[in-house]
């Protein structure tokens, strides 16, 4: 027997031994009927706030999730000076539902003054 044949036979025997030791080609799970479900329902809480007086960016949000039920709210300062506040819930049975509130009174910038046509303007 040549050295190559002997080496090849040794590698085959070693791989068969390892396969038998660790349960064959199925990783040792073919005879186990117990199944463990490692699924855990989603659960989280997050929150953020921004208050930038330089840009006027003012907003916040808060949300929680327990399994398939999501509850939260967010608010933001609108350009007209009001605050938009939204409270929402979402679940598999009822879908997404939101209640939107506008808080405060809108402030509008005065309209630019209209100038009368010039008496000395150019005519085409």
UniProtKB/TrEMBL annotation:
Segment forming the signal sequence: 1-20
Alphabetically ordered keywords of this record: Cuticle, Signal
InterPro entries registered for this protein in UniProt: CHIT_BIND_RR_consensus, Insect_cuticle, Insect_Cuticle_Struc_Prot
Name listed for the protein in its UniProt record: Cuticular protein
Organism: Nesidiocoris tenuis
């Amino acid at each position: 027997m040549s050295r190559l044949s002997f080496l090849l036979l040794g590698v085959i025997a070693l791989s068969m031994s390892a396969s038998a030791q660790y349960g064959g080609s199925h990783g040792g799970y073919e005879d186990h009927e117990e199944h463990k479900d490692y699924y855990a329902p989603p659960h989280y809480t997050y929150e953020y706030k921004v208050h930038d007086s330089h840009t006027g960016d003012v907003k916040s949000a808060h949300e929680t999730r327990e399994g398939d039920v999501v509850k939260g709210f967010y608010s933001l300062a609108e350009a007209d000076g009001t605050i938009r506040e939204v409270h929402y819930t979402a679940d598999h049975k009822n879908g997404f539902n939101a209640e939107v509130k506008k808080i405060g009174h809108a402030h509008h910038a005065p309209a630019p003054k209209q100038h009368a046509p010039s008496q000395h303007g150019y005519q085409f």
